[in-house]
Amino acid sequence: MPATSSARLFGRGSWSEASRIASVLRKETVGGVLLLIGTVVALVWANSPWAGSYESLRDLRVGPSSLHLDLPLGTWAADGLLAIFFFVAGLELKREFVAGDLRDARRAALPVAAAVGGMAVPALLYVLVNLGGGGALGGWAIPTATDIAFALAVLAVISTHLPSALRTFLLTLAVVDDLLAIMIIAIFYTSALAVTPLLLALIPLALFGFLVQKRIRSWWLLIPLAVVTWVLVHESGVHATVAGVLLAFTVPVVRSQAAGGPDAGPGMAEHFEHRFRPVSAGVAVPVFAFFAAGVTVGGLSGLTESLTDRVALGIVVGLVLGKAIGITLATWLVSRFTRAELADDLSWWDVVGLALLGGIGFTVSLLIGELAFGTGSERDEHVKVGVLVGTLTAALLATVLLRARNRIYQRMELEETSDVDLDGIPDAWDDVDDRPGNRAARPGDTPSGGATRPFADS
C-alpha cells in the first residue's frame, strides 16, 4: 500500500516549531565556530615550543581543598562548565518530550531510532576493532556521541541550505543522543558511588524544583541551590554533569493556565534556555574544547603512530562508518516498518549526509575518553587524535555529499521562505499547522493537539 501524504519521513512540522528550531540552531552555529577556534588554538599551542605552558595552565589547580574541589582547570571545564552544557541539553530534551516533536510517538520514532542506531553501531565497531586490546574496551562509548554545535559549524562553513525538516531532525537526534550519553556516563563511568552525598543532593534539587515550579527566578536563590546540588553529585562519584540534567528536568516547560489565564505563556524552561544557551554555546563548550583538545601530535610520524593504536582506530571507524551505517540503517528500518516514504525532493543520499554529520562527535567524545582512560594518559592522547581525525573525516565526507545536493536544498529553501500573502508565515506552512499531530504546543493544547484543557506545570 503506498504511503499517504501524512506518512512521510522528514516532513515539515509546524511553523512555530520550525522557527524556534531555526533560532536555536543560529545560536549553536555561533557556538560551533567558537568551538572550532578553541580547538585550533589548543592544537597550535600544544604543538608549539610553548607546549609546556599550555600543560601548566591546563593542570593548574584552583578551588577549596577542604571540599575536595581543588581541581585542575581542565577538570573544572569538564565537570563544571559542561554541567551548564548538559543543563541546556536537559531543558531542550524535556521541551521536546512535553511540547515538541518527541511528544508524538509517530514523529519521535525516527530521531529516537536514529539516535539509538547511531550509538549502537559505532560502539559495536569499536569493540570489534579492540577485542583483545588490553583494557581498551573501556572506551566503547567514545564514538557514540554527536556534537550538534560542531556539525552546525560545518554546515555554516560549507554554506549548504539544509531544509528545515533535516535541521530539525539533526537537532532532535543530537538531543536524544545527549540523553543517552549522560545515561552512559552515569551508569558505566561511575567507578565508586558514595550514596550519602547522592541522597543529600536530592534536598537542594527538590528545593530548586519547587522554586522553579512556582516561577521564582531569583538568581540568589536558584544558583546557590544548583551549585550545592552539583557539589554533592560530584562528591558522590557520579560525574558532576549529571547534576545539570537533573536540574533541567525539574524546570516546567509550559505554564499552568490556572496561574495566568489562557495566555499564560511558556514555562520557565524557555526563560532559562534564553539565558543559558549563549553561556553554554559561547563559553562552556569552547573553553572545554580548549582544555581537552590540546594533544601533542608530534608531526606526521606521531599522528601515524597514534592511529596505529586500536583505540584511535576504533574511534575513527566508529565515528565515520559506525554513525553513517547506524543512523542510515535505523532510518531505513523506520521507513520499512511504517511504510513511510521520504518527503518530496529528498533522497537516501540526504540521509547518508546527515548520518555523516552525526559522526562529528567532539565534546562528549572527549569527555568520555577522559573518563575511560584518565586525563593526560597515553591512551587519552590517542583518544584525542582519534576523535579529531574521525570528526574531520566525517565532516569532509558530509561536506562533499551535502554540497552535491545543495542546488536541491536551495530550491527547497526558496519554497520554505516564500510568503506571497505577506501574513508572516511562509506559504509552505499554510496547510501544515492545522494538521493533527503537526501543530506545536500552545497554551491550552493537549499533548496530542486535541481539545483544550488546562496544562499543569510540567
Kindly describe this structure.
The protein is mainly alpha-helical and 458 residues long. The protein folds into 2 domains: 8-189 and 305-394, Na+/H+ antiporter like domain (Na+/H+ antiporter like fold), CATH 1.20.1530.10; 190-238. 66% of the residues lie in helices and 2% in strands. The chain has 17 helices and 4 strands. The chain has helices at 15-46, 51-58, 73-99, 105-130, 148-158, 164-188, 195-213, 219-236, 241-249, 257-260, 268-292, 299-308, 310-338, 348-358, 363-373, 378-404, 406-417; strands at residues 8-9, 61-62, 71-72, 341-342. It has a two-stranded parallel ribbon with strand order 1-4. A two-stranded antiparallel ribbon has the order 2-3. α1 packs across α5 (148-158), α13 packs across α16 (378-404) and α14 (348-358) runs antiparallel to α16. The longest helix is centred in the N-terminal third of the chain and has 32 residues, at 15-46. It starts with 7 loop residues before the first strand and ends in a 41-residue tail after the last helix. The model is unreliable at 1-6, 257-263 and 433-458 (pLDDT under 50).
The string of secondary-structure elements, in order, is: EHHEEHHHHHHHHHHHEHHHH
| Helix content, binned percent | 55-70%
Overall pLDDT score: 83
Number of strands: 4
Any low-confidence stretches, pLDDT <50, length ≥5? Answer: 1-6, 257-263, 433-458
Which term fits the overall shape? globular
Secondary structure tally, helices: 17
- CATH top level of the largest domain? Mainly Alpha
Distance between the termini: 40 Å
Question: Which structural class best describes the helix and strand composition?
Answer: mainly alpha
